[in-house]
Amino acid sequence: xxxxxxxxxxRTGSVTIVLEHLVRAWSxxxxxxxxxxxxxxxxxxxxxxxxxxxxxxxxPAGPLGGLWLRSVAVRRAAHRLGADAVLAGVxxxxxLGSKAPRxxxxxxxxxxxxxxxxxxxxxxxxxxxWGWSMRLAEGIxxxxxxxxxxxxxxxxxxxxxxxxxxxxxxxALAWHAPQSDGTPYAIxxxxxxxxxxxxxxxxWAAFCATRTDWQLRLVGxxxxxxxxxxxxxxxxxxxxxxxxxxxxxxxxxxxxxxxAGLVLFPSDFExxxxxxxxxxxxxxxxxxxxxxxLAEVTGGHAVTARSTTAADLADAIRAALDLTPxxxxxxQAFAETxxxxxxxxxxxxxxx
Length: 352
Hints:
Layout: E1 2-7, H1 14-29, E2 34-39, E3 53-56, H2 65-80, E4 85-88, E5 102-106, H3 110-113, H4 120-136, E6 139-142, H5 145-154, H6 156-159, E7 162-164, E8 185-189, H7 197-208, E9 215-219, H8 223-236, E10 242-244, H9 250-258, E11 262-265, H10 274-282, E12 286-288, H11 292-298, E13 303-304, H12 310-321, H13 325-335, H14 340-351
């Protein structure tokens, strides 16, 4: 089987993590298959395993160049490469479909269910491109049962061609913690509106009222967000207990994550919730919100905050730090069900 992965509009971020590990697992699980990955004019955005073929597609100049890339260029490349199946890494590409069976990875429907977190332009663009792309697809692969349920509720016709292909978390086993300097720290995430970074800071301040031996590292923040967070931290008087960090490269992020003694992830909306799954896989206590995807990927082995109020988050932090080694080991055992091999098997079966 020759599968062509359409990654022409994929930039660095969570989607590259998904495609990198999916392609690697596919190559290892089905070595008889051929894999080609189409990249856009920015070049190759994630590493490929030995034997996988990378092809960079050019984009014509002008306002319609991007549209041409995501439609005509992808279709022609898939045909020229002799694809037996095409997998779109995001729903916003492959707008002309392909002669071979085509599948689309769907991460979430947050732009529909949390529209206030997106600009009007983004909502319109996604509604048009995503809807069109998924209607042309023979198969839709959601990254969780939660996203499959959302699709069934809001787009029942599309859901008839959908199947859940949950992501893996086993990639985190390769991450190595740094040598400890003696100060334990928690890690939380400051990017995107759904991560509730301001609530995390308030909760951390309430926690620091009784515990001053921990530090919070808030990662993935742009300058404007860091400035706003710095003012909040100053106002709460916890400057010595919070480090506001910019976007980290992969190695720095993995080291920071693996060395954490606690992961705070009270997001108000997730399609999967990879940091929560990674925390469980590494045996790190985790605090989550009641979000359905986070409940799905942690299986009751993380501490669920009753709400994102400061008091409830502080209580959840204390409860997470009281988890026993036996409880953490049970979480690790549960996390083993989320493997990239399983993701590859489900998607390959659906494409065939």
